[in-house]
Amino acid sequence: MLKKFFWNLLSSFVGTWIALLGFGVLVLIVIIGLVARIGISSSVSSAKVEKHSILRIDLSGTIDERETNADLDYMTLMRGNVERGQSLATLVTALEEAKENKNIDAVYIECGGVSAGFATLDALRKAIVDFKTSGKKVYAYADSYMAGDYFVASCADSVFLNPDGSMALQGIYGAIPYFKNLFDKLGIQFQVAKVGTFKSAVEPYIMSEMSQPARAQLDTLYGNIWNYIKSEIAESRKIKVADIDKLVDTDLITFAPVGLSVKGKLVDKLVYGRTVKEILGRLVGKDPEKLNFITPSVLTGQTDWGSAYSDDNQVAVLYATGDIAETANAGINCFKLVPEIVKLADDDNVKALVLRVNSPGGSVFGSAQIAEALQYFKSKKKTFVVSMGDYAASGGYWISADAERIFADPLTVTGSIGIFGMFPNISGALDKIGVNMQMVATDPQAAFPTFVKPVDERQMASLQSYINRGYDRFIKRVAKGRRMSEAKVRTIAEGRVWDAVTAKEIGLVDELGGMRDAIRWAAKKSGLGENYDVALYPKYEPGFWDFLPDASNASLMEAVASAMNPALDPAYSRHAVEVLTRKPVQARMIPIDLAKCN
User: Fold this and answer.
1) Sign of the alpha-carbon torsion through 455, 456, 458, 461
2) Euclidean distance between the first and final Cα of the chain, in Å?
3) Do the beta carbons of residue 266 and residue 232 sit within 8 Å?
4) 108-130 burial, b for 16+ CB within 10 Å, e for fewer?
């Protein structure tokens, strides 16, 4: 019996090893097939932008600040999900190149539910408007428009919508969950020390509903952002803001008959997707089936903008994107960003720095380390400018405040000059599950603060004093950087967030503009004039997956079939991939091809 058991165990190991080996070989086949069948042909065809080409912008998925490494694994590849996210840097650069490229006749925006901040969308929209100054046309289409898609598409020369689609234009709202009642049931309390009437980030954990100051600032923020968006749409569509208000609030256009979008002049024509090709064909004078659509990455591949790392008149653009922390792999890791700043400060080729900030803040320690490194950069008598993205608030503003010039998009959210500390106490939760935590310490405050017992009044006073000192430090930094009195800063601080238009009025922002505006200002301030080149940091180093082209499931199946056997029926390859991506446990019948039973 024991011998049989070990024999079965050994058989299982061998079977598993063979299966894994077979899977690895199949993955290798897929990779070879993709590179050989898709990658090579794509690189050859995309190297040439033919006459009467059209730049196609796919407004779906996420738009990041800049390129990031593709985070793919074998199973993702097998499923065919090889598509990678887009970047604002690539889209804007492609539009600039398309504006000057004689082989690009038009831009086609295909909307499919974009996920991006309003400032990112506004920057893209401005790049499209700038492209139109070339006299070339921009057409936009969607099966259904979401608010973000339509905000960008509304500046097109012609806006098309599927007759069975919808126009989801409803204004702006935010839903914030408040957890206090839940934590009360769990026996968890959060002890908070904070400064700033409007510093409401801690509210969801210590309150059951939104405070009046928090609601007031969001009412103002959302209202200002929505008013800007409406005014931009109205100007592009040559209608009145009041007309948009009526469509949204009275007619409930999202659920109204789709023809109202045309009647209300938000859309030019209702057409099906296949008809758009015919319209584009007439625009560029080509057969609809022979249109040459060019992706943004193809055009950016034909320009060296952003890669002038050896140029001696260099404006460096350094990205600071995400939450600020000390250990984060994603976001802003101060221990990775600080050496980058120091390296740029010591590089004689770098004459100016534009810090591209897109961050809601985070660690005070991390923010302080980055701010100190930026002061070191300035000590080298080099120009330091900030360009703000969707957010540059709290810690994001801490690292921005000392810039010689701050540029922000009108829809940037900034400010939030305030600090808080939040310390959980789970002693109630431990009581509920019958855990009695016993502690031994050499000193009364040895375990302070601890999450297994509440802080006392003396300890809370100490914590509040600590937070107050951090807030005072923040105020002083802003006052010095913005050349304001501390008293003035305190009146606009208190943890309040501002839209950039208002932030400019109160002195937190210098100019409304994008990253290109910040770069030009930095070059001029450094005495470079028009004689400069741009380098983006940290340097983007593509990994293996990044060399694979975007591939749909259909192209993946085709590559698998070709790699396995050029004459193999594609249906078999589809089945092979489907089997490999199934859940391990199944309840299904054997597949039967009914066509062969006749």
Assistant:
1) positive
2) 50
3) no
4) bbbbeebebbbbbbbbbbbbbee
For residues 356 and 318, the answer to whether their CB atoms sit within 8 Å is yes
Q: What is the pLDDT of residue 590?
A: 33
Distance between CA 277 and CA 279 in Å, rounded? Answer: 5
Distance in angstroms (rounded) separating the CA atoms of residues 390 and 395: 14
d(CA 38, CA 41): 5
In this structure, the chain runs to a length of 598
Q: Would you name the residues annotated as active-site residues?
A: 199, 394
Q: What is the CATH number of domain 314-418+496-537?
A: 3.90.226.10
- The dotted CATH code for 49-167+258-300 is 3.90.226.10
The domain limits of the chain are: 2-42+550-597, 49-167+258-300, 314-418+496-537
User: pLDDT tens digits, residue range 117-145?
Assistant: 999 999 999 999 999 999 999 999 999 99
E runs forming strands in 396-522: 405-408, 413-415, 419-425, 497-499, 511-512
For residue 228, what are its two tokens? 């800007």
Mean pLDDT on 326-353: 93
| Sequence letter at residue 301 | G
For residue 499, the cross-strand partners are: 413
The candidate with the shortest Cα–Cα distance to 63, out of 6, 109, 2, is 109
Cα 462 to Cα 411: distance, rounded to the nearest angstrom: 38
Q: Cβ(416)–Cβ(202) under 8 Å?
A: no
- Alpha-carbon distances, residue 324 vs 67, 167, 396 (angstroms): 19, 37, 8
